[in-house]
Amino acid sequence: MKNVTDSFVSLGHWPSAGSFGFNTDILATNPINLSVVLGVLIFFGKGVLNDLLDNRKQRILSTIRNSEELRRGAIEQLERARARLRKVEMEADEYRMNGYSEIEREKVNLINATSYSLEQLENDKNETLHFEQQRAINQVRQQVFQQALQGALGTLNSCLNSELHFRTISANIGILGAMEEITD
Within 13 Å of residue 156, how many CA atoms lie on the same side as its CB? Predict the structure, then answer.
């Protein structure tokens, strides 16, 4: 067994093809095995590895392109949203200003309407007072006239005798008759 191990220990000496055996020296066989495996992997795996790397590269580039397109779309949406926000803010300011001016206009209209109503009420009050004054004056006139008439009748009745009374009535009847002829 020593022959077998000695033949693998010495790298410069290879046994003839007639002898075949297992080399149990791990330190001597590991670098050889690794170099063989790496050589086979590099030779046969080079195309597969290149294909995998190319596919990965294409997926990464595709993802980057999609991300860029999404970013551009998001930027466009953001700009549209900002423009819409500016428009809505301007409309809100316009509505606010129109609302304030409408409130002021309504306030002025209400003040004017109230002032007009108060003026109408004052005019109606003055007309009512004037009407009531005229009515009171007419009532006082009628009372004064009735009292004067009664006083005059009392004075006439006490001063007039029946003959004078008869002549006054006849004269008044004559005046009424003359007036009646004129109107016919």
Answer: 13
pTM of the entire predicted model: 0.37
User: Within a 10 A sphere around the Cβ of 150, how many other Cβ atoms?
Assistant: 10
| C-alpha to C-alpha distance for 152 and 102, rounded to whole angstroms | 73
Q: How far apart are CA 97 and CA 105, in angstroms?
A: 12
Q: Using one digit for the tens of pLDDT, what is the confidence trace for 30-58?
A: 777 788 888 887 888 788 878 888 999 99
Nearest to 174 by CA among 112, 119, 158, 182: 182
Report the alpha-carbon angle 73-79-81, nearest 5.
Answer: 100
DSSP-derived letter for residue 91 is H
Q: What is the pLDDT of residue 27?
A: 67
Place of tokens 């001597």: 28
Tokens of 83: 């423009």
- Residue among 1, 46, 38 nearest 23 (CA): 1
8 within 8 A of 29, measured Cβ to Cβ: yes
The secondary structure element, H or E, covering residue 110 is helix 26-159
Which structure tokens are listed for 128?
């009512």
Query: What is the C-alpha to C-alpha distance for residues 103 and 105, in angstroms, rounded to an integer?
Result: 5
DSSP 17: T
What 3-state class would DSSP assign to 24? Answer: coil
**164-181 as b/e: b if 16+ CB within 10 A:** eeeeeeeeeeeeeeeeee
